[in-house]
Automatic annotation (TrEMBL):
<dbReference type="GO" id="GO:0006508">
    <property type="term" value="P:proteolysis"/>
</dbReference>
<dbReference type="InterPro" id="IPR051202">
    <property type="entry name" value="Peptidase_C40"/>
</dbReference>
<dbReference type="InterPro" id="IPR000064">
    <property type="entry name" value="NLP_P60_dom"/>
</dbReference>
<protein>
    <submittedName>
        <fullName>NLP/P60 protein</fullName>
    </submittedName>
</protein>
<feature type="domain" description="NlpC/P60">
    <location>
        <begin position="80"/>
        <end position="202"/>
    </location>
</feature>
<keyword id="KW-0732">Signal</keyword>
<feature type="signal peptide">
    <location>
        <begin position="1"/>
        <end position="25"/>
    </location>
</feature>
<comment type="similarity">
    <text>Belongs to the peptidase C40 family.</text>
</comment>
<keyword id="KW-0378">Hydrolase</keyword>
<keyword id="KW-0645">Protease</keyword>
<dbReference type="Pfam" id="PF00877">
    <property type="entry name" value="NLPC_P60"/>
</dbReference>
<keyword id="KW-0788">Thiol protease</keyword>
<dbReference type="GO" id="GO:0008234">
    <property type="term" value="F:cysteine-type peptidase activity"/>
</dbReference>
<dbReference type="InterPro" id="IPR038765">
    <property type="entry name" value="Papain-like_cys_pep_sf"/>
</dbReference>
């Protein structure tokens, strides 16, 4: 009996020593598993964060093609595609007699000529050069292209004459000097001195809408009359050498 009690005592002592070790092992196993899970989550979050940073970088490096640019309150159309079809309709009226205030094939003036050309192209353009100057986007003289409208101050300080640029330094217009619709070199001293600005009607414009007001046009003329046109200066120097 004493022997049996001694064996039972030894067994109980061993159990007491073994149980904490087993419990500790299980705890360590759970902690290791939990730690691994947290590590995997951190890796996933790092991957998402890197992807997010890459996405932001991609957006920053995305380039948008410029079609126009602004200077102060104005939008310039140097990079817009002009309506080159205007030239084709203008040539059809070549030789038509000039008449101040005229609006028919028997006699036409500069703004009526432009109005007719745009009507043939499917656009409704106002009657006078001063009103026509409100349409389209400003284009710097060195960037003019065929189809652009050129405005001049002839008998008044505001836009009183208009022509259509056809390339190679020439325009087609109803000329009071020539007495008809003709092609003229815009680098002549007469037109260089009287040139105000150029306007572009974009090729993809469905309907003509005024882009400026008379006040903004007057402001533009006032700003640009204070400085000499660098292109005009080069032309003058070149003509002086020939």
């Amino acid at each position: 009996m004493k022997v049996l009690k001694k064996i039972i005592g030894i067994f109980m002592s061993s159990a007491i020593l073994i149980m904490p070790s087993v419990a500790e092992a299980k705890t360590k196993k759970i902690e290791k598993k939990h730690s691994k899970s947290i590590s995997v989550k951190h890796k996933s979050l790092d991957k998402i964060s890197k992807h997010s940073r890459h996405s932001k970088h991609s957006k920053k490096s995305l380039k948008v093609k410029k079609v126009s640019y602004s200077y102060g309150p104005r939008v310039y159309g140097d990079d817009l595609e002009p309506n080159r079809d205007i030239y084709k309709y203008a040539i059809g009226l070549l030789g038509t007699r000039y008449t101040f205030g005229g609006e028919s094939i028997n006699g036409i003036d500069c703004s009526s000529f432009v109005q007719h050309v745009f009507e043939l192209a499917g656009y409704k353009m106002p009657r006078t050069a001063r009103e026509q100057a409100l349409y389209g986007y400003f284009v710097r003289r060195e960037n003019i292209k065929p189809g652009d409208l050129l405005f001049f101050a002839t008998y008044a300080s505001y836009p009183s004459h208009v022509g259509i640029y056809i390339g190679n330094g020439k325009m087609i217009h109803a000329s009071s000097r020539g007495g008809k619709v003709e092609i003229t070199d815009i680098n002549q001293d007469y037109y260089i001195k009287r040139f105000l600005f150029a306007k572009r009607i974009p090729a993809n414009m469905k309907e003509l809408v005024p882009q400026d007001s008379i006040e903004s046009i007057e402001e533009y003329i006032s700003e640009n009359s204070k400085k000499e046109d660098p292109i005009a200066k080069i032309i003058k120097e070149k003509d002086g050498k020939n």
